[in-house]
Amino acid sequence: MLSYRHAFHAGNHADVFKHLVLVQVLGALLAKDKPFFYLDTHAGAGRYALTSKAAQLHREFETGIARLWHGDAGPPAVQAYLTAVRVSNPDPELRWYPGSPRIARSFLRPKDRMVLCELHPQEARVLAAEFAADRQVRVLHQDGYQALKALLPPLERRGLVHIDPAYERKDERRRLLDAFQEGYRRWATGIFALWYPIQDRAGADAWLRRFRELGIPRLLAVELTVLAELPWRLNGSGMILVNPPWRLDQTLEEVLPWLWQRLAVEGQGGYRVEWLGRA
């Protein structure tokens, strides 16, 4: 229990996909002058040194962020994502990979705020130190699912909830679904972004079917797989987006083919943009 450490996987293909999507959502929140609230239920350590022993063990970043770092310009959505990563890398060399907290922090204006939850004791300590002097950021050492009940709806009335567990518990999907429904009941107008791993197509389809059955009016699923289907490995990942920003589906339909070409292994895998519910 609580054995997962993201430092071993920082900057891999799943991170690139997930954070590119988050950047598009966060950028859309800036379109209005009103403040927004960001909640990360499984925040991790905040950022990760790619020179660390953990990151160097499997060097997963080499088939993820490194393939984009020195590549061609790419679509605007890719450039926006790379700009957010460069905030943690002021010199040209890729030394750090920012987790979702650092990605989100780069979008906060003085009137915006975020709350970061992390249950793993060591990760929570690192995360607290990362944002110790930041008055716009609150770090909580607690189960992020509880925050969906305790912190929603926020005073700002607009913003994003990012739910990104490690899926190391056998009952993780049930806990996530129950917690999400509670959060959505409290804040039906908020944006929710829920990440999920893809190991086999049948499992992913069953997961999406459970969300489709909720009858939520604005529900978008996006996926990127870079390997052929094998049930014991991470072949790709997906994001379920509730109340996604206007035209996000079109943006992702344009950028995912480009991203798949850069990250796929010998043309394996694919991409998907599908509305599970649309008002």
Automatic annotation (TrEMBL):
Q: What is the lineage of its organism?
A: Bacteria, Pseudomonadati, Pseudomonadota, Gammaproteobacteria, Methylococcales
Q: GO molecular function, one example?
A: 23S rRNA (adenine(2030)-N(6))-methyltransferase activity
Q: Where is this site: Interaction with substrate rRNA?
A: 4
**Active site feature:** 164 (proton acceptor)
Protein source organism: Candidatus Methylocalor cossyra
* Superkingdom of source: Bacteria
Pfam families linked: RsmJ (PF04378)
Keywords tagged on the record: Methyltransferase, RNA-binding, rRNA processing, S-adenosyl-L-methionine, Transferase
Q: Which leading EC class covers this enzyme?
A: transferase
Q: What name does this protein carry? A: Ribosomal RNA large subunit methyltransferase J
- Known role: Specifically methylates the adenine in position 2030 of 23S rRNA.
Membership in a protein family: Belongs to the RlmJ family.
- Is the keyword ATP-binding assigned to this protein? no
Q: What is its EC number?
A: 2.1.1.266
- Binding of S-adenosyl-L-methionine occurs at 19, 42, 100, 118, 143-144, 164
Describe the subunit structure.
Answer: Monomer.
Database matches in InterPro entries: RlmJ, SAM-dependent_MTases_sf
- Report the catalytic activity: adenosine(2030) in 23S rRNA + S-adenosyl-L-methionine = N(6)-methyladenosine(2030) in 23S rRNA + S-adenosyl-L-homocysteine + H(+)
Q: Does the keyword DNA repair apply?
A: no
